Predict the 3D structure of the following.
Amino acid sequence: MPKVIRTLTFGAVALLSVSAVASETASHAQTRLLAAACANCHGTDGKLGGAIPAIAGRPASVLERQLLAFKQGQVPGATIMDRISRGYSDEELRQLAQHFSRITR
Protein backbone atom coordinates (compact mmCIF):
# COMPACT_ATOMS: atom_id res chain seq x y z
CA MET A 1 0.00 0.00 0.00
CA PRO A 2 1.47 3.40 -0.92
CA LYS A 3 2.50 5.60 2.00
CA VAL A 4 -0.05 8.34 1.13
CA ILE A 5 -2.95 5.89 1.20
CA ARG A 6 -1.69 4.30 4.42
CA THR A 7 -1.46 7.77 6.04
CA LEU A 8 -4.93 8.76 4.83
CA THR A 9 -6.37 5.48 6.10
CA PHE A 10 -4.75 5.93 9.50
CA GLY A 11 -6.04 9.53 9.62
CA ALA A 12 -9.55 8.41 8.72
CA VAL A 13 -9.51 5.72 11.42
CA ALA A 14 -8.24 8.24 13.98
CA LEU A 15 -10.97 10.73 13.00
CA LEU A 16 -13.67 8.07 13.27
CA SER A 17 -12.35 7.01 16.68
CA VAL A 18 -12.41 10.59 17.95
CA SER A 19 -15.93 11.05 16.57
CA ALA A 20 -17.13 7.88 18.28
CA VAL A 21 -15.66 8.94 21.63
CA ALA A 22 -17.14 12.44 21.31
CA SER A 23 -20.52 10.95 20.45
CA GLU A 24 -20.35 8.53 23.40
CA THR A 25 -19.33 11.36 25.72
CA ALA A 26 -22.17 13.57 24.47
CA SER A 27 -24.65 10.72 24.91
CA HIS A 28 -23.36 10.01 28.43
CA ALA A 29 -23.53 13.70 29.32
CA GLN A 30 -27.09 13.93 27.98
CA THR A 31 -28.16 10.89 30.01
CA ARG A 32 -26.56 12.30 33.18
CA LEU A 33 -28.45 15.54 32.57
CA LEU A 34 -31.72 13.62 32.21
CA ALA A 35 -30.90 11.63 35.37
CA ALA A 36 -30.31 14.78 37.40
CA ALA A 37 -34.07 15.31 37.57
CA CYS A 38 -34.45 11.91 39.25
CA ALA A 39 -32.23 13.04 42.13
CA ASN A 40 -35.03 15.27 43.44
CA CYS A 41 -36.87 12.22 44.76
CA HIS A 42 -34.53 9.24 44.42
CA GLY A 43 -31.38 10.96 45.69
CA THR A 44 -28.07 11.55 44.01
CA ASP A 45 -27.35 8.63 41.70
CA GLY A 46 -30.64 6.97 42.67
CA LYS A 47 -29.44 5.65 46.03
CA LEU A 48 -31.97 7.27 48.36
CA GLY A 49 -34.03 4.68 50.21
CA GLY A 50 -37.15 4.94 52.29
CA ALA A 51 -40.67 5.69 51.10
CA ILE A 52 -39.32 6.44 47.63
CA PRO A 53 -37.39 3.41 46.38
CA ALA A 54 -33.70 3.44 45.54
CA ILE A 55 -33.25 2.73 41.85
CA ALA A 56 -29.46 2.40 41.62
CA GLY A 57 -28.22 -1.05 40.69
CA ARG A 58 -31.59 -2.47 39.74
CA PRO A 59 -31.72 -4.41 36.45
CA ALA A 60 -32.17 -2.13 33.43
CA SER A 61 -35.01 -4.28 32.08
CA VAL A 62 -36.95 -3.91 35.35
CA LEU A 63 -36.40 -0.17 35.51
CA GLU A 64 -37.35 0.34 31.86
CA ARG A 65 -40.48 -1.79 32.19
CA GLN A 66 -41.53 0.17 35.30
CA LEU A 67 -40.85 3.55 33.68
CA LEU A 68 -42.86 2.59 30.59
CA ALA A 69 -45.71 1.32 32.79
CA PHE A 70 -45.76 4.68 34.59
CA LYS A 71 -45.76 6.51 31.26
CA GLN A 72 -48.65 4.41 29.94
CA GLY A 73 -50.71 4.93 33.11
CA GLN A 74 -50.56 1.26 34.07
CA VAL A 75 -49.41 1.71 37.69
CA PRO A 76 -52.38 2.13 40.04
CA GLY A 77 -51.77 4.58 42.85
CA ALA A 78 -48.77 6.24 41.21
CA THR A 79 -48.20 9.54 42.93
CA ILE A 80 -46.16 11.55 40.44
CA MET A 81 -44.10 9.19 38.27
CA ASP A 82 -46.97 8.74 35.81
CA ARG A 83 -46.77 12.45 35.04
CA ILE A 84 -42.98 12.77 35.14
CA SER A 85 -42.39 9.80 32.84
CA ARG A 86 -44.63 11.31 30.14
CA GLY A 87 -42.04 14.06 29.72
CA TYR A 88 -39.50 11.56 28.36
CA SER A 89 -39.37 9.64 25.11
CA ASP A 90 -39.26 5.84 25.31
CA GLU A 91 -35.60 6.00 24.23
CA GLU A 92 -34.78 8.47 27.01
CA LEU A 93 -36.45 6.17 29.54
CA ARG A 94 -34.37 3.27 28.19
CA GLN A 95 -31.21 5.37 28.58
CA LEU A 96 -32.18 6.29 32.14
CA ALA A 97 -32.82 2.65 33.00
CA GLN A 98 -29.40 1.72 31.62
CA HIS A 99 -27.77 4.59 33.51
CA PHE A 100 -29.20 3.69 36.91
CA SER A 101 -28.61 -0.04 36.44
CA ARG A 102 -24.87 0.61 36.13
CA ILE A 103 -24.61 2.40 39.50
CA THR A 104 -23.54 0.27 42.43
CA ARG A 105 -26.02 0.35 45.29
